[in-house]
Structures are given as C-alpha cells and as structure tokens.
Amino acid sequence: MRRKLFSYRDNIEDMSVFDEFDRMIKRWQRFFEELERQIDEEFQRMTEPRYQYRGKPRFYYYGFEITMGPDGKPIVREFGNVRSRREGAGIEVVDEIEPLTDVVEDDGKIKVVAEMPGVDKDDIKVRLSDDNRTLIISASGKDRKYYKEIPLPGEVIPEKTKASYRNGVLVVELEKKDKTKKGFEIKVE
Q1: With b meaning 16 or more CB within 10 Å and e meaning fewer, what string describes 86-104?
Q2: Which fold has domain 99-183?
Q3: What are the beta bridge partners of residue 83?
Q4: Could you tell me which residue, 140 or 58, shows the higher pLDDT?
Q5: pTM > 0.85
Q6: pLDDT averaged over the chain?
Q7: Are 81 and 60 in contact (CB under 8 A)?
Q8: Domain ranges in the chain?
C-alpha cells in the first residue's frame, strides 16, 4: 500500500511505509556500528594501566528498549553508562549507570520499577524534585553507581510514597495528586 506524504517544500512524494521502516533500520545499523567502533577504541584506551579504575578496568553497560508509543511510532529508551556526547562527537563512559526503568500509571497511582543490581538497600537514595513531578534515584555501592531522573506523568503526594528493594529491583509506588479536588475543606467547630 502506498500513500502520499507532503515534504517540507509542499512537494508530494510517493513513499511506502516499508521504505520508511527500511530507512529507520539502516539508520540504527549505522548508529550501532559506529557505537561498537567507538566502544572498541575506548575499551582499548581504558585497559591501559594508566587508566585503571579502582584497580580494575572500567566496565561498559549499554542497552536499549524499543516500545510502540500511543501514536504508533517506536520509542527507543537507552540505559547503561555509555552515552552519546551532546555535541554529537562520539560517546562517553560515565561512572553512574542509568538503570532500566518502567513507569506504570494506573487508577491514580504511579509505579516506577528500576533494575539496580549490585547495591545494598542502604546505599539507595530516592527523592522527589521540588515540584513533585520528577523522581530522582541514586545509589552508590562498592562496584556500581546508579543515577536517573524520571519524569512522572503527574504531580504526586510525597507523604504517600513507598519504596522497596528486593533482588536488585527497586519499586517505588506513588499516589497522584487528585486534580478534581480544588482547595481544602476546613471543618468549622
């Protein structure tokens, strides 16, 4: 099936959905080939004795997850300690790992699940931003450091937040602020 799409110059271009998908896959292939090349170069450099980290070579942790968004377009989420530089000039390896996280919204509640193996419960710090719309997770263990700021799909009530950590998985349960309630009723005595 072919459809007509308008270009930026208002020219009509005949394009197949599959052509666009092929172009997207080729872009990702080029990205991962370049990423692999840069990681190999960085690994060679970082394994030299002068670049040892706490007596051990630094490790590389990179992954991605592709899901389908509500508009039908793919959403790619990256995690790990290998990141693209903002200037677009290569990659950088940082000490803090960005954990893989999932945010699930259900009936006035938000559940955030983060995979953070290799740290103790006492090493984890969970806090909300000043506007109660961003969850900030950090942890510093013997061999690993984690850090991630997670935008929440709404404002939450800080007093009703619960967190638990078992088997390397952090679960934070938050209650959304009810937007239908306006103000606060005060009882007259």
Answers
A1: eeeeebebeeebbbbbebe
A2: Immunoglobulin-like (2.60.40)
A3: 92
A4: 140
A5: no
A6: 77
A7: yes
A8: 1-98, 99-183
